[in-house]
Design brief:
This protein is rod-shaped. It is an alpha+beta fold and 213 residues long. It has a domain of 140 residues: Immunoglobulins (Immunoglobulin-like, Sandwich). The protein has a four-stranded antiparallel β-sheet with strand order 5-4-7-8, with no helix packed on it. Strand 7 and strand 8 form a beta hairpin.
Length: 213
């Protein structure tokens, strides 16, 4: 009878133990759930947006405008014709008409003073005439170049070579203020050159050169 009296107590203790174990298990699960729920979510940084590449605007270079300067028939110092602007043609003649530096006295000049040459210091003019070949007429301009002579009694001047133009409609040109001596004349006409030597004496001198078309 004593054993049966203790049975209810044992049953109560077993029930209490089962309840206690169950309660403990439930508490642990709740704490684990709370702990997991309280964990902060990881922060995801936004990806940087790609930098836009600027579009280059094409640069339009204007085309050079065609020159409207008219061309003329330019007669060069060598007597040849070429198509050029009037300004270019004038510049060409200005360049060739620039006086050359005065040359040093040559041995021929020194010897000329003792060989019967005209040593006068008087200044003289030279008139150069051009005439067409028989049966022809003068058409266009002619370039006349005066240069220093050679040999005995050769004339020398710092302005030489000196170029002048005989314009169409005229037949002569004057080279002023030269000392006596031998000089060389070259006439450029229609692409050909015509040469002549002339000796200047005191007073006015002239020479005629025949040209052909």
């Amino acid at each position: 009878m004593r054993g049966f009296a203790a049975l209810p107590l044992i049953i109560i203790l077993v029930i209490a133990g089962v309840v206690g174990v169950g309660w403990y298990t439930f508490s642990v699960k709740q704490q684990t759930k709370v702990t997991v729920s309280a964990s902060p979510s990881p922060i995801v940084s936004p990806s940087p947006s790609p930098t836009p590449v600027p579009t280059q605007t094409p640069v339009v270079v204007p085309s050079p405008k065609a020159s409207n300067v008219p061309l003329i028939d330019c007669l060069g110092p060598d007597g040849k014709h070429a198509q050029a602007t009037k300004q270019d043609c004038d510049n060409l003649w200005k360049y060739w008409a620039t006086p050359a530096p005065s040359p040093s006295p040559s041995p021929s000049q020194s010897s000329s003073q003792s060989s019967g040459c005209n040593t006068s210091t008087d200044l003289t003019n030279l008139i150069v005439n051009i005439q067409p070949k028989s049966g022809q007429s003068l058409v266009g301009d002619a370039a006349v170049t005066m240069s220093n002579g050679s040999g005995d009694c050769a004339g020398h001047d710092s302005r030489l070579p000196y170029i002048q133009i005989i314009r169409q409609g005229s037949t002569s040109i004057t080279f002023p203020s030269f000392r006596p001596g031998k000089f060389h004349i070259q006439v450029g006409y229609h692409g050909n050159n015509y040469d002549s030597d002339v000796s200047l004496n005191s007073g006015d001198n002239s020479t005629t050169v025949t040209v052909s078309n």
